[in-house]
């Protein structure tokens, strides 16, 4: 059987567009049915498309990536997956954005050393970028909360009767369930708003 060439494309969320990576794969000569796409974070390798692709890889097959961070963003795991693909599976890897990371070529000891150093450096950069993104998100959320920005769905506007029913509930004259029914809201919503 002929050696196969597969492309692996990953975007972090369902909203992100994978088209740029897919175009790069097609320009490399890959057919659409040879491109595997995951829409999932690169924090680990528990991704359905990647797992299936890894099982398919045979010796002398080739895995094409647009950039190393599309493989993942965890330094240790990128190095481990690289080892599994190139050593255990005996398949080749081509990273389009980094020609030094092309294991198809016969390399002398110096070439292997250089590609190992580049791989480690790029893996480190990918994980560092992921950590920076998470830090920026946390800082942005904290700053928004400090400004009074509320997260989650907007609160329902309570009818005028709410305040009277809240008073009755606090005095033990009415149950939360009955108050919720009167207001046409769930008793959990009534309780949450009454306790605010």
From TrEMBL:
Residue intervals passing through the bilayer: none
Biological process terms in GO annotation: DNA integration
PROSITE patterns membership: RECOMBINASES_1, RECOMBINASES_3
Highest taxon of the lineage: Bacteria
GO MF term list: DNA binding; DNA strand exchange activity
Pfam families on file: Resolvase (PF00239)
Keywords from the UniProt entry: DNA integration, DNA recombination, DNA-binding
Domain Resolvase/invertase-type recombinase catalytic: 4-148
Residue numbers annotated as active site: 12
Name this polypeptide is given: Recombinase family protein
Organism: Vallitalea guaymasensis
């Amino acid at each position: 059987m002929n050696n196969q060439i597969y492309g692996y494309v990953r975007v972090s969320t369902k909203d992100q567009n994978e088209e740029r990576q897919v175009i790069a794969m097609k320009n490399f000569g890959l057919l659409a049915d040879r491109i595997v796409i995951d829409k999932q974070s690169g924090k680990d390798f528990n991704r359905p498309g990647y797992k299936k692709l890894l099982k398919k890889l045979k010796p002398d097959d080739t895995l094409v990536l647009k950039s190393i961070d599309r493989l993942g963003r965890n330094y240790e795991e990128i190095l481990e997956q690289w080892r599994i693909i190139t050593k255990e599976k005996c398949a080749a890897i081509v990273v389009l954005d980094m020609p030094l990371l092309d294991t198809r070529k016969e390399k002398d000891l110096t070439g292997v050393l250089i590609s190992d150093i580049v791989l480690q450096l790029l893996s480190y950069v990918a994980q560092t970028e992921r950590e920076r993104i998470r830090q920026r998100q946390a800082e942005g959320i904290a700053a928004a909360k400090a400004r009074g920005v509320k997260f989650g769905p907007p609160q329902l506007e309570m009818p005028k009767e709410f305040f009277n029913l809240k008073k009755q509930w606090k005095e033990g004259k009415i149950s939360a369930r009955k108050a919720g029914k009167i207001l046409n809201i769930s008793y959990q919503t009534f309780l949450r708003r009454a306790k605010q």
